[in-house]
Design goal:
By secondary structure, the chain is an alpha/beta fold. The protein has four helices and nine strands, in the order βαβαβββαββββα. Belongs to the purine/pyrimidine phosphoribosyltransferase family.
């Protein structure tokens, strides 16, 4: 599996450090509050479990499962809601935890959905931001790393459902997806 990786962008140690520093920022922002922290499945699974443990604040956690890539390196353009949260977020402070913001379509869908439900505030924490991929105008409040315009995998991020279990984030060799 490691042979499919062109280069490592962020090691496990760099990711751990980013989680610590984001956790400190988030703790300050939510001091005295009890946000609902929503992890976006499946990509954000590992980041979510690391980030919530780095935050010193009362919180509720929940998960939402959305999908738009379907085995490709380009967004299908349509965000499908596969599984909703169980928490009533009306009047609540919501923190969305994402692995990556690329076109921004997934995040826009989530921001609109949670705003329609009457969230008191909505903030976004993403490990990776790929500004060159943006198709819709959305922004993250807490960002780990800005990544170049390349398809990245590992630490939850997949290509065709593979590579999520890599402990680091790397760039996939183009021949892996070119031959599909
Ligand atoms: O900014 P965007 O272009 O919308 O891309 C970002 C989204 O794409 C990926 O999810 P995907 O749809 O691949 O589902 P997954 O998390 O289950 O892999 C990723 O986990 C983000 O949620
Ligand atoms: O670069 C990426 N890698 C994996 N999943 C993604 N979803 C959006 N962009 C990416």
């Amino acid at each position: 599996m490691n042979n499919d990786i062109l280069k490592v962008l962020y090691s496990k140690e760099e990711i751990d450090n980013a989680c610590k520093s984001l956790g400190n920022e988030i703790s300050k922002t939510y001091a005295g509050k009890t946000p609902v922290v929503v992890g976006v499945l499946k990509g954000a699974i590992f980041f979510m479990t690391d980030i919530v443990r780095a935050v010193d604040s009362y919180m509720q956690i929940d998960f939402i499962d959305v999908s738009s890539y379907h085995g490709a390196t380009e967004s299908s353009g349509t965000v499908e809601l596969l599984q909703d949260i169980n928490t009533n977020i009306t009047g609540r402070d919501v923190l969305i935890v994402e692995d990556i913001v690329d076109t921004g379509r997934t995040l826009k869908f989530l921001l609109d959905t949670f705003a329609d439900r009457g969230a008191k505030s909505i903030k976004v924490c993403t490990l990776l931001d790929k500004p060159a991929g943006r198709k819709v105008d959305v922004k993250s409040d807490f960002t780990g790393f800005k990544v170049p315009n390349e398809f990245v995998v590992g630490y939850g991020l997949d290509y065709d459902e593979k590579y999520r279990n890599l402990p680091y984030i790397g760039v996939l060799k183009p021949e892996i997806y070119a031959n599909k």
